[in-house]
Design a protein that fits this description.
This protein is α+β, with helices and mostly antiparallel strands. It contains 1 helix and 5 strands; from the N terminus they run E-E-E-H-E-E. It has a domain at about 25-75. The chain starts with 5 loop residues before the first strand and ends with a strand.
Length: about 80
């Protein structure tokens, strides 16, 4: 089975913006046991939805969670 990473920074107009306040934080992806699977510092311009999707597209394992700093921003379990 192939797992798709879903990032929560895409939002409808009525939802809070969770990306802008943490856009300059390091992206970390952890597995279910809290092991580091992937890490990448933020680009100078900060993360965009497109950049986050691009750099996590290869992550197809089950039970992964993505964080920008301490803020949870996505999962393969959504």
């Amino acid at each position: 089975m192939m797992w798709q990473f879903t990032l929560l920074s895409a939002k409808a107009p009525y939802e809070p913006d969770i990306l802008t306040p943490v856009a300059h934080h390091t992206l970390t992806v952890l597995d279910a046991d809290q092991n580091l699977v992937f890490e990448m510092p933020a680009p100078k311009s900060g993360w965009s939805q497109w950049m986050l999707e691009s750099v996590t597209a290869h992550l197809i394992l089950p039970e992964l969670d993505a964080f920008l700093g301490e803020e949870w921003v996505g999962s393969t379990e959504i």
